[in-house]
Amino acid sequence: MTRTHGGDDYHLAVLVEEVVRCFEGAPEGEIFDGTLGAGGHAEALLDAYPACRVLGVDRDPEALAEARARLGRFGDRVRILHARFDEAAVAAGLTGPTLSGALLDLGISSHQIDEAERGFTFREGAPLDMRMEGAESGAGTAADLLNEWEEDRISRLLRSYGDEPRSRAIAREIVKRRAERPMERTEDLLAAIEAVYRRPPMAKEKARVFQALRIEVNDELGALERALPALRDALLPGGAFVVLSYHSLEDRRVKNAFREWSRACTCPPEIPVCVCRGEPLGTLLTRSIVRPSDAEIGANPRARSARLRAWRKAA
Ligand SMILES: C[S@@+](CC[C@H](N)C(=O)[O-])C[C@H]1O[C@@H](n2cnc3c(N)ncnc32)[C@H](O)[C@@H]1O
Q1: Where residue 155 sits, what CATH number does that domain have?
Q2: Shared domain check, 211 and 280
């Protein structure tokens, strides 16, 4: 497999060989990469399957510029679209089943984490923004949420999306502090966490809070829930659907969807008699989750929480 590594400084793609293998035997045609990022997975797919084309989508315009440069050598085998993956099928004019495969590599890229101005980082000195589309989206920022939400709602967010054990105390501290001065920069939030822990918080403690905010600001779980059935329906018979998730709430949604679609009867429980005639919509390509090896995690620690699941639509 020939591969250039121009985009690897931007984001190092995870479980590349495993992702590529999932598309073996898929029908010829266009693979939808809904989280194009720096184009690492897309490049590997285009190299591995000379007949395949890629429709690359990302909500972050900076990522698309990076991918465009990396994938330029594939010419018209690549289409690039600035959109959210849950809205991309309409934006790309896809009607009916046309895709040979779909890939979602969820979450954010290393570049988004590294670039302080976008506010994903929990290093001091960045605005509390976290919008993947950047300011042009006009959507609310993490600061808006922290300054406007009620204490109880902030607490529930930190608990459910961040598994934060001190969620109540941190929410209380945020509300107390914002009465004096609005939450604007990462150091404002870090100071609230530090006040609760009564010591400088550890990286994992900061990450729990920042991750919860990022998931909410970008409606990441909502986007995934809308995209799963839409992309399944856009697959051609035999098409592969591959998802890499980095959070247990994402992985649970993917696991449940792929399992449900692989059951012989897919009628909703309230229907007393099977109307789907017991035909599964497809089969699991991964019986259990695939995780990166210790060697991959050693080379790329951000791969640590990756979980891959794959499904194939019935032929
Ligand atoms: C982990 S990175 C993907 C990296 C990519 N697979 C590669 O090889 O470089 C996730 C990317 O998905 C994008 N993203 C996250 N949620 C999205 C959504 N709902 N729609 C479109 N892009 C999204 C982010 O902007 C980010 O660039």
Answers
A1: 1.10.150.170
A2: no
